[in-house]
Amino acid sequence: MSTSPHLSVVVPVFNERDNVAPLVHEITAALRGRAPQDGGDFEIVYVDDHSRDDTLAVLQALKAEVPELRVIHHVTQSGQSTAIRNGVKAARGEWIATLDGDGQNDPADIPKLIAMRASSPAEVKMFAGWRVNRQDSGSKRWASKWANAIRARMLRDDTPDTGCGIKLFERAAFLELPHFNHMHRYLPALMQRAGYRTVSVPVNHRARSTGVSKYNNLNRALVGVADLRGVAWLIRRGKVTRTEEI
């Protein structure tokens, strides 16, 4: 692996000890042996959000057999958005792919997003996964559909599934975005606010095989209302100014 890989795969985790090793091996299987510009020059950055199980110990043991793996540990639990941001800040790649740590996103879709990037204009800075065949409970699918409809009406971000964990984006563009708790649910809208284009790409979605979800419909709804109002305010107050050097 080069000192500065082209791609960094960032995975936030909290209490996912049984999902860590299978997902790490799926990531390496999806990317090893590919051309550098197609994802073959990569690192994996796991961010452990102060797990209470032995997730961190499992990750530390995996480093001995997976040279691409790096591990960042939160000394206090800080949430998924902070874990993603700290992973991106620590990443050395020019482009970032993110995956949820529960194994429901398919790492085999990362090359698909990279191929879409290769055929897209330079102003497209984010390729967002779109779970067209979700493998969640009926109540979770209904809640997500309801939330996506409200968000799309308020933010007009033209993104059918903003909550999908698998995304590909330019690191520098991401670090320009305002940071706040739960921002990961609004990344396409925030990228567009910054003056960039985003594209939604259909991806695979899998049922959780082990562990339990860290969210429920009620806590998503309670924080979602305040977040939506805040993001809508940010969009209204945002301004992109083109510059040129003369």
From TrEMBL:
Sorted keywords for this record are: Cell membrane, Glycosyltransferase, Lipopolysaccharide biosynthesis, Membrane, Transferase, Transmembrane, Transmembrane helix
Keyword check for DNA-binding, yes or no: no
In this chain the Glycosyltransferase 2-like domain maps to 8-174
Q: Which Pfam families match?
A: Glycos_transf_2 (PF00535)
**Mind telling me which InterPro entries this protein's record contains?**
Glyco_trans_2-like, Glycosyltransferase_2, Nucleotide-diphossugar_trans
Q: Which SUPFAM superfamilies match?
A: Nucleotide-diphospho-sugar transferases
Statement: the UniProt record of this protein carries the keyword Transmembrane? yes
Q: Which CDD domains match?
A: DPM1_like_bac
Any one GO MF annotation of this record? glycosyltransferase activity
Q: What PANTHER family is this protein classified in? A: UNDECAPRENYL-PHOSPHATE 4-DEOXY-4-FORMAMIDO-L-ARABINOSE TRANSFERASE, UNDECAPRENYL-PHOSPHATE 4-DEOXY-4-FORMAMIDO-L-ARABINOSE TRANSFERASE-RELATED
Q: What is this protein called?
A: Glycosyltransferase family 2 protein
